[in-house]
């Protein structure tokens, strides 16, 4: 991890801990003897791609810089039910204070990674890549993108500042596709690729004529995608095609076979459920 | 909303916007004429309890303090498919910059509220209350608790600092239930209610003897809950009973009928899916 | 100390240092050779319960992470006049930069602890506990509560968010005691104890009928407290009684003997004077 | 008030409110109807110089930007017992949330101003000025200096960065008075006045020979101060003399008459007690 | 200005003011009567492209939200010597507190804009664009980029995160140009353009074979640039060429005529001098 | 370096890095193998007084706390062309991420130090000191003052809060020089020196009569300065004289010989150009 990501992770974990701890864990303060030491271990309750071990360790290290995690699996690894994924030893009050957040992170991120893997497997053998969307959980984009990459997905632009995608709502206020792409080319063209959402053949041709690099087909049926991909490839051998909108585990392969280079799947962050994982503490 | 919640909401929204905007929306900067005005409207794609309209408005007002939302439904209201929930008029670049975050919040929070309502309806007619857990999304606890209350659920303690719950992991390091409750009583008893997780009759009696106010039955079968509730009521007419662990829409009513006062449901925040909602922009 | 308190202490000390140092100690910068090393020692000028040594050490460690304090007394210990409480060795400019703040903290906190001890001794042998109030110095509540606990006092709720006390001003706007307690019961009763200020028998009965857990007698004469305590105990064997208002070293025992469980004393933080302590520096 | 002080006051008040409110006032949230309006008034319980009205108003305005204070006395004014100092109308929950902090500030700052005035009156008719010290309450220096100026005192340097005072502890590590003053002159002399603590005639002569501008007599008896002042005035007509150390209301005039230009009084911030002031709320 | 830039500008101005004001302007506090009103006006001392008026206004508005600037020229306009560029009326202490920072910003930014314009004019009639570099003043990149755009320059990537440029130092650790470009293509190719520094024909061919979009010629003589541009255009009709390194007003046109699409000029931010501008205050 | 300066430097470097890195260095992330180690060295491209090595080291240490700089020259040392000033070994991505900022700081600060030295040498043999002004680069005052001291200059007041200078704009709103100085004396005189800008003999006499300590001659011709200095010295043997305004390397000695004690030179921070320095990276 580099300085930017490390700094962001540390500051997120600290803020999540403050959310849960407020003025401090009054239960532990009342009933645990100071300096009591304990052991804790994370155990999987189902099969999953594990994700978030680095974040979970950061939870404990933020509370006590000496308390590392001994991991028996790596982020991105597929594990079976009943596996001891990691263990840690430290002050009992630190384990109890960090337990819930560490689990919340592990359960959610593993859920995202596991679901991503299912999509990636569904398109195996096709040239299509599964990519993420900006439909992430507010505040968790960095971590969710990480989980998606662990599951075999690719990361699209991080936010509105590091990639140009002209969507239908932009076109509506910019006065048409041709005009929107032309302006983007003028202002940004030497430095940035331009992606444009098109919904039919006319729009596709307009976009490519103005020099669009990437086409986005949103909410189009597979047959229409297939037809438009052929037309696009004829126009420009280098054009990249992305599909999005209501992509499910059932239909994702069909879109891949229709010729999409990238398939962006909102479900990765909108429908992943928390994996079954527990944390067991005992005296050290 | 009071000062504390307002301040927290404002600072969260600003931080979520920074996550998505980074150094700014380069697409809009390139293709939208400065000062172009536009209209946007949120439309439901399915039936739901809507939640997050105040947060969505805060998104736009953070970007431009003049841009309010005109809502046609209130947070907590049940709406049908195809309903225009709210609309707003403002600068086109503000609408485009806030669109994704506003939707991300509305879709998720409405999902939580809608799922909560299903649980609440499932126990209707029983004295049991559906309550939330600390298994919330890191960083979103305040908003998710709000969505749960809109769905008819009740809010349990916010975090580790405003309520005492002695769980199995605490007991493991504190040296037994009796000892844990006694210490908590001594240190906090005049000011705080003491809740204790118990898993059998012996533990239940120990807890009540030491003056526990509330009992938590986690992961116990319904019949066992029913038996233990009867014993508890005999011991203390005022004791409160909470159930938790693998509560589903299928089994929740059974737990309620077994005599629980509170049923805490992790699924409210761990398994809610994003509701189908869209935002449509056109020139003003 | 746990993470929450450590973080809060560190950030307070740093902010207090910035208050005193501004852009830096221009006297030391001008006249002390870089890297000059020196020794300093804290000496008591009167008998006291010492409090704040951990905070004083944090002052020096914030300025120079290597500079620890060697303490010859522990926080909470009673010391005589002329005692060397602690000493430290480090860079001369660090000692000179931290001296004033370390003393300001030690003198004030020791003053609070010493005064608390006098109150605690005054009620020795009665079941009453001396407790703190929210009449603390703005910004110093955490440290003053700590000093009070060192002096043998107990800590009441930290702030408005971790305990329910319905005072006369609340009753005035809530429409009467019965109504206020009933609402509090409904909203918070399963999770929180309810404390209510009552000033006569009628109010006491109203409060207990609605299920108040704790009664607060503020500014009542001892005889009236005594009478009301008896009535309260008849109504509910578990009710807790707190007295407050113009409690002095002269009258505190009378209130304790009148049956109060808790006596909250504003003077602990409002009238404590700074203890006589000095810091002497010489070349190392 | 200028931008610097305004910003500092606002940020302090907000931080003090967060200290008291934490996650919010659960009592008001439970029992006060939303949007209930109420009136509150501050009433004096004893004679005092009032100080802190601007700060008290900032408390309420921070909670609700519309809620101003109508003051019937000005900061610095002497008021009698039973006087209604100020009143305010607003939301009941805002009044209840701000009440304690507003009182804590008013009571303490009025205490400082009132005590200062007693010292100022004690030296009336002499050329001496009562000045403050760095023995202020950590975090409250700006407000306490303000209260001291309201009581008729003068403000000495704010912190270590805006004035040079070479005290005994500096001399101990700098290698003597002559050397310390010479270095300070060299480094800072064109821009800053140099003040030096001296304890006898030899040190006084050394200091003046090296060009000290101001002499500090700490913990010297009045007769010695008197003798040294005469010697100093002979050496330099422009020299300024400050006295400090165990200054009391009883001995302050003697020091003034001994010829001090400034008498710095630690008691102003170390021994002031909170004034008797109350806040009464009723429905609007 | 959008929310991101507004927020960044506001927070920069506030931080610059704190740098200059520290604990407040002691001169004004001592000698200016409170509420004295005054007028100030900015007057040019030489011919320039003015830049920074919005920033200068933000200086005064940060100090006093009511104090706007009445501008008689727009950012980016060319003005003559002796021109009153803007005037403002407000509190005298606000004018005196903001004067220096407002001038520091206007003088520097106008210097950058004016120098940029000279470079832009030097290449007039050629297809080359003058672009900025990351050799900006630490902390001022946003403002300097803005000044450069006012002078007619174009903005290259903001920082390391929004554009890929593989320079010689990257190649040295990545194991050759071919390998570096190939990896970049794989990881980022669908979303980002790849720019590569090449210093001879072999490197140029390697880069283009691996799919580089843009070539950077750094520190190459004009004739070599000319030759390489021809080779590059043969290979790929769409390739973009950037030149950099020791570009001066004397040689910039030659590089433009050699076929560069972009010429990045470090001098714009490294050698611009402050323009001659003054601020004159009088009583209002 | 003391705590205040260390803290300020660290927080500046971190903020400068965030400016350049945004969400991270996408080029390195794509093409550099994780954990690749490399060596870098700074080489001078011209003769200069080097300044900023401590800041450059802080750049790398902020990115990776283990990565120190091995310096072959000290800040303030004069070095020749082609000198290896410092080298460092660490992770390749850290070197590439810090390179630009480290250079930007070194080049600019060395430029300021080098130019300062030229001014200092120009007045060698006279009693005049070259001093800095508040015409520094916004945000960089601390670092630029440091560079100026390395070049042999002296530091004037840091900002508006640690020194009193009454300039023409102050006089214009304060109602005349006599009145301005008198007020300043009254309010601040015991603690602060008073400097006053005067432009002729009448103003000079007014200022000295009211007790000004220092006179500022701004934009006056050398002969006039010479004449006024003589008059001032007659009035007060202790008066200090500062000159400012359009001081150049050509005329600075004349001002020094005219009798100025301090000559403040805006050009030090307004006209210094970046020195020629490069950073070369290779595999370790």
Description:
6 copies of one chain form a homohexamer. The mean pLDDT of chain A is 95. Helices cover 45% and strands 18% of the residues of chain A. The relative contact order of chain A is 0.15. In chain A, the strands form 3 sheets. The first copy, chain A, has a 6-stranded parallel beta sheet. In chain A, strands 3-5-1-12 form a 4-stranded antiparallel beta sheet, covered by helices on one side. A two-stranded antiparallel sheet of chain A has the order 2-4. Chain A is built from 11 helices and 12 strands. With 284 residues, chain A is of the alpha/beta class. Chains in contact: A-B, A-C, A-E, A-F, B-C, B-D, B-E, C-D, C-F, D-E, D-F, E-F. At the C-D interface, α1, α2, α4, β7 and α6 of C face α1, α2, α4, β7 and α6 of D.
What would you report as the Rg of chain A, rounded to the nearest angstrom?
Answer: 23 Å
Nearest-integer average pLDDT of chain A:
95
The CA-CA distance between the termini of chain A, in Å, is 31 Å
Determine the structural class of chain A based on helices, strands and strand pairing: alpha/beta
Largest interface: C-D, 73 and 72 residues
Q: Tell me the number of strands of chain A.
A: 12
Low-confidence stretches of chain A: none
Oligomeric status? homohexamer
Helix count of chain A? 11
* Largest β sheet strand count, sense and barrel closure of chain A: 6 strands, parallel
- Strand order of the biggest β-sheet of chain A: 6-11-10-9-8-7
The residue fraction in helices of chain A comes out at 40-55%
Content of β-strand of chain A: 15-25%
Shape field of chain A: elongated
Order of helices and strands of chain A: HHEEHEEEHEHEHHEHEHEHEHE
């Amino acid at each position: 991890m580099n300085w930017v990501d490390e700094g962001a992770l540390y500051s997120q974990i600290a803020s999540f801990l403050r959310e849960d701890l407020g003025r401090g864990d009054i239960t532990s303060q009342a009933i645990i003897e100071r300096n009591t030491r304990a052991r804790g271990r994370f155990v999987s309750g189902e099969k999953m791609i594990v994700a978030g071990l680095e974040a979970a360790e950061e939870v404990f290290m933020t509370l006590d810089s000496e308390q590392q995690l001994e991991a028996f699996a790596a982020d991105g690894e597929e594990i079976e039910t009943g596996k001891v994924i990691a263990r840690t030893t430290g002050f009992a009050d630190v384990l109890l204070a960090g337990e819930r957040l560490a689990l919340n992170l592990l359960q959610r991120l593993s859920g995202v990674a596991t679901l991503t893997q299912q999509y990636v497997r569904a398109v195996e053998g096709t040239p299509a890549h599964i990519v993420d969307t900006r439909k992430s959980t507010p505040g968790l984009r960095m971590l969710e993108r990480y989980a998606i990459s662990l599951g075999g997905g690719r990361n699209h632009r991080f936010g509105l500042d590091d990639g140009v995608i002209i969507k239908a709502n932009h076109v509506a206020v910019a006065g048409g596709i041709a005009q929107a792409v032309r302006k983007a080319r003028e202002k940004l063209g030497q430095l940035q690729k331009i992606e444009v959402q098109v919904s039919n053949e006319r729009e596709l041709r307009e976009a490519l004529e103005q020099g669009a690099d990437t086409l986005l087909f949103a909410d189009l049926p597979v047959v229409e995608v297939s037809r438009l991909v052929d037309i696009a490839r004829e126009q420009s051998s280098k054009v990249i095609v992305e599909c999005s909108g209501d992509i499910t585990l059932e239909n994702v392969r069909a879109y891949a076979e229709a010729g999409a280079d990238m398939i962006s799947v909102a479900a990765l962050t909108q429908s992943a459920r928390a994996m079954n994982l527990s944390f067991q503490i005992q005296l050290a």
